[in-house]
Amino acid sequence: MYLWLRATIVAPKEAEGKRLVILADFGSEATLYINGVVSGAMDMQHHDVTLTRNSREGEQFEFVAEAYAGHSGQQPVFGESYLCLFEEDVYQFFIDLECLWQVLKFTDANSLRAAEINRCLTEVIAAVDFGLEEEELANHMKFCRDLMQPLLECVNGSTSPLLFLMGQSHLDIAWLWPIEETRRKIARTMSNQLALMDEYPEYQFTQSQPYLFQLAKELYPEMYARIKQRVAEGRIIPEGGMWVESDTNLAGGESLIRQFLHGKRFFQEEFGKDNQMLWLPDVFGYSGNMPQIMKGCGIYYFASVKMFQTYENVVDPFPYNTFMWEGIDGSEILTHLLDYGDYPIRVNPSFLIGQWNDRVQKDGISSRLVQFGHGDGGGGANRDDMEFLRRLENLEGVPRTRQGSPIDYFEDQVERGIPDAKYVGELYYPAHRGTYTTQAKLKRLNRKTEIGFREVELWGAAAELLQTKAYPYEKMDHLWKQLLLHHFHDILPGTSIHRVHEEAQAELTKLHGTIHEMADEVRASLAGKDSASVTVFNSLSWDRKELVALPDGVRAIADHSGKMVSVQRHEGTLYAELASPAMGWSTYIVIQEDQLAPTIASSAVTATESHLENEYLAIEMNDRGEFISIVDKQTGTEWAADSCNVIAMYRDQPSAFDAWEIDRRYQASRVALEDKAEITVTANGPLFASVRIERKLHQSTIVQDIRIRSGSRRVEFHTTVEWNEKNKMLRVDFPVNVHANESMQEIQFGYVRRPTHASRPHDADRFEVSQHKWTALAETNRGFALLNDCKYGVAVKDQTISMTLLRSPSYPDETSDQGTQQFTYGFLFWDGTFHDSRVIQEAYELNYPMYTLHGASSLIEQSLLQVDQANIIAETVKLAEDGTGDWIIRLYESKGSSVSCGLRAGLPYSTLFETDMLENNQTELPVINERIHLQFRPFEVKTIRLVKSKEVV
Q: Which of 519, 462, 477 has the alpha carbon at shortest distance from 882?
C-alpha cells in the first residue's frame, strides 16, 4: 500500500538566492516528484530534498510524494514536515569541523599534526558565535572556516595507502519488503544519485544488477533516459556481472551461467558496456566452482563484503583481503574482500582510517577497494558523503582516496603486482547455515523448475532440428529471467518476510507449471500421435533402464522385438522398467488386452513390516521405521553402524537471525520422538517392493514410502511431512561403517571435500554445509552416499551423515515452512573406488525422471548425444542464443580426474567449436571418424558449438 501526498510550494521572500529544501517525515521511505519529475527520495540516509539551490521569490513547485504505507506488522507513523532555508555556510563549517575533529582522534597525541589541530580547534571554538543571524552568521562561518582551511590543505607523505572509492547502493530485490516496494526503491535510489551528480560533477556511482535497470526502464522512462546519459558520460557505472545478486550455494551451475549471460547481455545491449567484475556484497558464501564459471563467462575479478560480517558467530577469521582465488578445477580469479565498516556507511575520516586499519592482510598490499553509500534497502550516498570526500582526497592523517570504477582498483592492483596470497576451494561463509534449508518449498520448486528448463531446451532443440518446430527464444528468455530473479540471495535462501515467500512460491509454482507443460508439448511433438505405441524419453547422457509409470490405459507393452516387458500395478498406476538411449528416446508397442498371454513374473524383491530385500541388499527395520541392519548380500558387509534413517528433531532457537542461522550447539536440544510407527507393506514385486511408515513427530506427522527396486542398490524414501512446528529443526541420520576424515558434497559441476571432524577452528566452523544432489563417505575401496531431490543442508560428523530436512524459524517470516512438505531422499552403497561408482549417475536418476507418453516417433530409437566416459556429464544441450540453430553442448568432468573423452552427436553438423560459457567461439575442433575428441582436466566445464548443417534430417 502507498500513500500519495501533494502540495504546491511557493518560495518565500526570505529564500531569495538560497537553497530551498523540504524536510519531511512520512514515517517511511517515499519517492518524491518535483514538477512532475522524479527528483529524490526520503530514506534512512536522505531526510530532505532540494527544491532549488538558488531560490527566487515566488517560484512555484508542484510537490508530490509516494510514501510506502507498510505491510503486515509494519505500519509507519506520519511525522512532521517543513519547508526550510538551508544555511550553506553553517553546513560547510560543520563538515570542516567534524573532519578535523575526527583526524585528531586518530592522530598521535605527541605529533605536530595533533598540536596544530588542537590549536586550531581551540581558536575556532573560542571564536564561534551562533547568536548571529543571516548575513552576519554566514560571514562569521566563513571566518571560522578560513581558520581551519590551512589544516585541511595539509597532504600525506609518500607512504600513504590509497583507497579506491566505489559509490554504490546494495539494493535487496526483496527482503524486509516485497518486490513491489523494490519497484519504488530503484526510483528513490537512482533519483537521489542523479541529483548528487547534478551538484557534484566528480561523483561516480556503480549499480550492479541489470534487473533493477530493467525496472527503471519500464517504470520510469524519463529517469532512465537520464541514467543512460550518465552511463555514457562514465558517471554511472553498470558493473556487477549477474542479472541479480544471486545465491551461489543453492542455484544450479547452469543457472549461474545464465545469470552472467543475461546480466552481461543487458549491459552490452543497453549501454555498450562489458562487465569484468562479479560484485556480490551480501551473498552467504561462494561455491568452489565460481572461479571457473566466472572465467568462462568473461569475468576477471571478484569482490564481496560478506566474508568479514559473521554477526554473533565466533569463527576462524578469513586470512586475506586481496588474493588469487582458486576454484576446484584450478581456475584463478583476482579477488578483493571489502569491509562494511560502520552501518550505515558514512564517509568521513573515521570510516576511511578504519577501512585501512581493519584490513586483515597487513603485508603485501598498499591499496583497498572501499564501497560507500547506504545499502540493503538502497539509498546510496548523500550530500555529507560528497562534501567529506572533497576534503579527503589527500588529507594528512587519512588514507588517500580516488573515486571511480571498481575496475580501476583491480587494474591498479595488477599493475602494482598481485600479492603472494592464494586461497583454494570454496569461500565457506561461517554463518547463515540455516539458509540451506529454510523455505523448503521454494528450494524444491527451484530444483524441479531448473530440471524443467533443461528438458525444454534439449527436446526443443530436437524438435527444431527434426520437425522444424519453431523454438520459443523470446519466451524462454523471459522465463529464464523469472527463474534467475528468484535466485536472489534473500529469496531462494528463504530469509525474507512472509509476503515475499508467498509471492515467490506462487510465481515459481506458475513457472514450474509453464516450463513442464512446454517440455510435455515438445516431447509429444517428437513422439507423434499413435495410441498403439509408447515412447520413453531419457534426457541424461547415458543409457538408462528406469522404473516409469505407463500412460493411462496401457495394460501391457513389448519392445520392438516383441518381447514382453514386466509390469507391476501399484495404487492404480501401472509401472514398467523401460530402457532408453543417452539423450534420446525408445518406442515400445502397446499390447492390447486380447493379445495378452498369461505370464508369471518371478520376483527378487520382498517386503514385510520389518524387512526389505532384493538381489543386492537385505534391510531390517525396527518399530519406528529405522534401519537397524543394512547388509550387502554380495560381500556380507554390515553398513549400518547404528540405526539408520533416524528422524531427529531439535529445538532451533539461534540467538539472532532465525531464518539465517543454525546454532552450533543445537544437538544439545534434542526433542524426544518416542511414538512408534504404523508400518504397512504396500508393494511386493516383481519390480519393486515398498513399505509405508506413518508416524507422529511431536506436533507433526511423517509418511514415508520406502522403496527398493529389483536389480538396484538404491533405496528411496518418498516422504510427506505435515509440518506444524515452531522453531524446530528436522533431520535424518545415517551412521554407517565407513572410516573417512573427509566427506564429499556435490556442488555445481563437481564436488568438494570437507572434514568430518572439528580438529581445527575452520573444521569446526563447517558443522553444517551445502550440497546439491548427494553427499558421500568413501574409503579407497568402498563407500556410502545419501542422495536427495531438493535438500541442500547436511552435516557429516565422524561416520554419520545427517541431512537437514525442515526448519521452522519465526523471523522474518512467522509462518516459515508450515503445512505439507514433500521430498525424496535415498541411499546407495558401492564396492570399488569412488571414481568407478555410480553415485553421480544415481543422484541424477533420482532427480531426472524418464517420461512416457503415447506416440511413436518416425525414429523408433534415437540418441542425440553419446559420451564414452562415465565421469563426463552432459549438463546442458540447447540451441545457441544467437538464433542460428547451432547446438550448444555443455559438459563437465564430475569425478576430479583428467580424462580423454569421445563424443558422438546424433545430428548433422558442419563444423565444431569450443566456446566460452557465453557461446563465443574460441577454437575449432577436429572430428575423427565422427568422434569428437575432448581432453578434460579435473572438474573442467567445456562448452561446444555444433554449427548447424544444411543437410536435411
A: 477
CA-nearest of 255, 279, 251, 254 to 267 is 279
DSSP 883: S
State the pairing for strand pair 301-304/332-337: parallel
Q: Give the whole-angstrom CA distance, residue 30 versus residue 220.
A: 15
Give the model's confidence band at 595: pLDDT under 50 very low, under 70 low, under 90 confident, else very high. low
Helix (H, G, I), strand (E, B) or coil at 636: coil
Q: Which three cell numbers stand for residue 107?
A: 592522530
Contacts of residue 498, Cβ cutoff 8 Å, sequence gap at least 6: 72, 812, 813, 814, 815
Any idea which residue has 517543513 for its cell?
82
Quote the cell numbers at residue 435.
539458509
Q: Which of 10, 30, 8, 15 is nearest to 79 (CA)?
A: 30
In this structure, are residues 95 and 388 in contact, taking their beta carbons and an 8 Å threshold?
yes
Please answer whether residues 226 and 194 qualify as being in contact, where contact means their C-beta atoms are separated by less than 8 angstroms: yes
**Per-residue pLDDT averaged across 446-460, rounded?**
98
d(CA 111, CA 200): 34
Give me the sheet containing 769-770, strands edge to edge.
Answer: 670-671, 646-651, 728-735, 800-807, 793-797, 769-770
- 275 Rama sector, left if φ>0, alpha if ψ -120 to 50, beta otherwise: beta
Instruction: Determine which helix (DSSP H) or strand (DSSP E) holds 850, and give its type and residue range.
Output: none
Burial class (CB within 10 angstroms; exposed 0-12, middle 13-18, buried 19+) of 628: middle
Please state the rounded mean pLDDT for residues 651-664: 95
pTM, 2 dp: 0.97
How far is 34 from 47, CA to CA, in rounded Å?
Answer: 16
| CA gap 748, 251 in Å, rounded | 8
Q: What phi, psi does 515 have (nearest 5°)?
A: -70, -35
Instruction: Give residue-wise pLDDT tens across range 467-512.
Output: 989 999 999 999 999 999 999 999 999 999 999 999 999 999 999 9
For the record, the C-alpha cell of 396 comes out as 594528512
Rg of the chain over Cα atoms, rounded to whole angstroms, equals 32
Q: Residues 577-596: what's their mean pLDDT?
A: 89
Using alpha carbons, select from 185, 189, 277 the residue that is nearest to residue 239. Answer: 277
- Taking the C-alpha atoms of residue 263 and residue 240, their distance in angstroms, rounded to an integer, is 8
Omega prior to 281 cis, within 30 of 0: no
First CA to last CA distance, the chain:
57
Residue labelled with grid coordinates 556435490: 746
Give the whole-angstrom CA distance, residue 359 versus residue 318: 11
What are the tens digits of pLDDT across the range 928-953?
888 999 999 999 999 999 998 876 44
d(CA 493, CA 437): 7
CA dihedral of residues 808, 813, 814, 818 (deg, nearest 10): -50
Q: Which helix (H) or strand (E) holds 913?
A: strand 909-915
- In contact, 170 and 281? CB cutoff 8 Å: yes
How is 527-582 classified by DSSP, letter by letter?
A: H-S-TTEEEEEE-SSS-EEEEEEPPTT---EE-TT-PBPPEEEETTEEEEEEEE-T
Report the DSSP beta bridge partners of residue 519: none
Q: Is residue 681 helix, strand or coil? A: strand
* Distances, alpha carbon 125 to alpha carbons 131, 188, 301, in Å: 14, 38, 48
**82-110 average pLDDT score:** 96
CA pair distance 252, 487, nearest whole angstrom: 10
Per this entry, what is the length of the chain?
953
Can you state the percent helix, strand and coil of the chain, rounding each to 5? 25, 35, 40
Distance CA 237, CA 271 (A): 10
Contacts of 156 (CB under 8 A, 6+ apart): 394, 395, 396, 397, 398, 399, 400
